[in-house]
Write a structure and sequence with these properties.
By secondary structure, the protein is an alpha+beta fold. The chain is built from 9 helices and 13 strands. Helix 3 links the parallel strand 8 and strand 9 (158-163). The chain is globular and about 75 Å long.
Length: 368
């Protein structure tokens, strides 16, 4: 008897086994029906660029579970990744090609297999100027990252690293903070049957907004992300972020042990000095000598960031909102004075911290 395929394969390629045109199958039956009506000639394959077997797939329309792709009965396939993010390396190639054409940049994106599959990394190389951007999907140890960087830099005029969820080792992050003041990150958001890349720059205690590729640019110094400036190594002290208008503080990104980071140059002015000094005091009070409540909130945020990295977009957004709220609360707590304790303001701020810690713990438990 033929054996059914029970794997919930969510991605495929369109047209042939060697195609690089990825697709995420809609999970709802009505959406799949609409896709079939719009593209009746589409054929789907377990593509070799997905690490698949190269065989043809069928689109299963299901009412009692999510719709999915399926192999033929008794098919033999050892593809490692089947989820919605398993074709992200193909979607980033498509996004990069479109972005380069729109920007008038003569460039090429190439998949890199670093030992676990064709989606371990994607290299974007600008011809002529020899500029290179490495989009890192697979996690590397710090020595592996250094070795890869040395190899890439041999024939590159500039090299930028952009790390996917969980792909940057803490020591690597610390070194990037020291060299450039920030780390570039990427993630994807599902839009219909495709996934679109978003990029942001993270500093030690703040980050830019997530932006599409169209908001970025290739400059003579390399990839430019709005809101951040590239810099060389500096010995300037850590400074906590200023709270922007509206009260929402930028997301806080934990610094690896031994790391040193600073706010990128060019932000603020001499008129901001009192605020920067106040925030620096708040940062000191949230360090090793901080109150148990501050340390607890920071520990929970760091734990939640790790747990939320591979989660769905709505969970990641919720975690980011809590991260930003925690950063703003830590600054308010650090600014408390002795008079605040007499007035009762400190009690109110502490209660806000207790409430925040409870919500962080609840979401972390949900992800576990």
């Amino acid at each position: 008897m033929a054996e059914s395929d029970h794997r919930l394969v969510q991605t495929a390629v369109i047209g042939s086994a060697t195609s690089g045109l990825g697709i995420v199958l809609p999970q709802e039956a009505d959406e799949l029906r609409r896709l079939r009506r719009r593209h009746p000639t589409y054929t789907y394959w377990c593509g070799t660029q997905l690490g698949g077997c190269g065989s043809k797939l069928s689109d299963r329309l299901c009412a009692d579970k999510v719709c999915h792709f399926a192999h033929a009965p008794n098919a033999s396939c050892h593809r490692k990744a089947n989820g919605a993010n398993s074709a992200d390396h193909l979607f980033i190639k498509q996004d990069l090609a479109r972005w380069a054409r729109g920007s008038g940049v003569d460039a090429r994106a190439v998949l890199r297999d670093l030992g676990s599959g064709p989606g371990d990394a994607v290299d974007f190389r600008v011809r002529g100027s020899r500029q290179r951007v490495r989009f890192q999907f697979r996690r590397l140890t710090h020595p592996q990252w250094r070795s890869a960087g040395e190899e890439l830099e041999r024939d590159a005029a500039s090299l930028d690293w952009v790390f996917g969820p969980g792909s940057a080792h803490p020591e690597t992050v610390a070194e990037m903070y020291g060299r450039f003041g920030h780390v570039l990150r990427f993630r994807f958001e599902t839009e219909g049957v495709a996934r679109r890349i978003r990029i942001r720059a993270e500093e030690a205690r703040s980050s830019t907004d997530w932006v599409p590729l169209d908001a970025c640019a290739m400059t003579p110094e390399g990839l430019r992300v709005p809101g951040v400036e590239r810099r060389r190594r500096t010995s300037r002290p850590v400074v906590a972020p200023r709270t922007p208008p509206g009260g929402a503080a930028p997301a806080r990104v934990p610094v690896a042990p031994g790391a040193q980071a600073s706010v990128a140059p060019g932000r603020g002015s001499s008129a901001d000095a009192p605020d920067r000094r106040a925030d620096a005091g708040a940062a000191r009070r949230s360090g090793p000598g901080a109150s148990p409540l501050v340390r607890k909130v920071q520990r929970l945020v760091e734990e939640l960031n790790v747990l939320a990295a591979p989660a769905e977009a709505d969970i990641r957004m919720k975690a980011e909102r809590l991260d930003r709220e925690a950063a703003a609360w830590a600054v308010r707590y650090g600014r408390l004075t002795s008079s605040d304790f007499w007035s009762g303001k400190a009690t109110k701020v502490a209660a806000q911290g207790d409430s925040l810690a409870g919500r962080l713990e609840k979401l972390a438990q949900h992800l576990k």
